[in-house]
Write a structure and sequence with these properties.
Blueprint: H1 3-11, E1 17-24, E2 28-31, E3 37-44, E4 46-50, E5 57-60, E6 64-67, E7 73-76, E8 84-85, E9 97-102, E10 108-116, H2 125-128, E11 133-136, H3 142-156, H4 162-186, H5 193-199, H6 201-212, H7 220-226, H8 231-242, H9 246-264, H10 269-275, H11 281-292, H12 296-301
Parallel strand pairs: 1-9, 2-8
Antiparallel strand pairs: 1-10, 2-7, 3-6, 3-10, 4-5, 4-7, 6-11
């Protein structure tokens, strides 16, 4: 099981929204804080990223910015250009890519800006380690840069199949952005947290097995044995990188999977319980309520809304 893909799939709660944004200098756009994890990709031309704190940063074609909490940020052709509020595109029913044009007489730039809808009530700890603002250069992430280049080609003109290709590329970008961040972190001398866990052969392998079969009655000794470590060495290494002991993470992941199944399927509670490792519906319901603050049946009826006390 691909842990990164699995974690994101469990967090997705809505459709990605984005807008093809064509601008001509002089231009300056202030993007308001919004729900979701926002992104800005420079497809053509050049621009400056103006964070709320810190110095302006020049962006080149292929560079990508991700804001974990969707905080306010600005983009402009020049740091001195006056800013105006970005006006989101108006979407038709079923449309995922809008269009925004800012007229001017100068140099042209083409961007795509939008938001990934990720659940915030139960974020995966992997995402909790992301910086609030992540800037990835095209020169350091070749795979992401190729995807961005293809996206730019698709958005330059209307072509058959564009409405299917563009949203798929935009969704793929999130995985490639996170991969780029993980690989950048792995190039550092000390690889902290989840980037270290996913690039560590033993811990990454153990996480993949937990995700592949969360319902198995795993023990720390068995997991350690499967990745070639003693029980104590494995537990210590896992805890240091993941931030919690193996079976604590397993319980958290089981409940995350259960929540996803309750939101997205009609499977009976007994089947959900069995899939995430509980022999009885009663034991599962007790564990679920302890984790979410609400009984699983009610959680399903209310569309996956956890108790405020959870």
């Amino acid at each position: 099981m691909d842990v990164l893909t699995d974690a994101l799939a469990a967090m997705r709660v809505g459709q990605t929204r984005s807008a093809r944004t064509e601008v001509r200098a002089p231009w300056g756009l202030r993007f308001p804080a919004v729900g979701g994890t926002t992104f800005h990709v420079l497809l053509r031309g050049r621009c400056w990223l103006l964070p709320p704190d810190g110095e302006p940063v020049e962006m080149a074609a292929g560079d990508v910015t991700l804001l974990r909490h969707g905080n306010t940020v600005a983009l402009a052709d020049d740091p001195a250009t006056p800013l105006r509020d970005f006006r989101p595109a108006t979407w038709r029913t079923g449309q995922t890519i809008g269009r925004v044009d800012v007229e001017g007489d100068g140099e042209r730039a083409l961007l795509i800006c939008g938001a990934y809808q990720l659940g915030r009530t139960r974020p995966h700890p992997l995402l909790a380690e992301l910086p609030d603002l992540l800037l990835l250069r095209a020169t350091e992430t070749p795979g992401l840069a190729r995807t961005v280049a293809l996206l730019g080609e698709e958005l330059e003109e209307a072509r058959p199949g564009q409405d299917g290709v563009v949203p798929a590329l935009v969704d793929a970008m999130l995985l490639l952005i996170l991969r780029g961040w993980i690989e950048r972190s792995a190039r550092a001398e000390a690889v902290p947290g989840w980037p270290g866990a996913l690039t560590d052969a033993a811990i990454g392998g153990a996480l993949a097995q937990l995700h592949d079969n969360p319902g198995r009655a795993w023990t720390v000794a068995e997991l350690g044995d499967r990745v070639g470590l003693s029980r104590s060495a494995f537990a210590q290494r896992f805890t240091a990188l993941v931030g919690e002991p193996p079976l604590t993470y397993l319980t958290w992941w089981r409940m995350t999977v259960a929540g996803q199944l309750l939101r997205e399927s009609d499977a009976p509670l007994s089947a959900v319980a069995q899939q995430v490792g509980y022999a009885s519906e009663f034991a599962f319901a007790k564990a679920f309520k302890r984790e979410f603050g609400i009984a699983p049946g009610r959680y399903r009826r209310e569309g996956g809304v956890a108790s405020p006390a959870a």
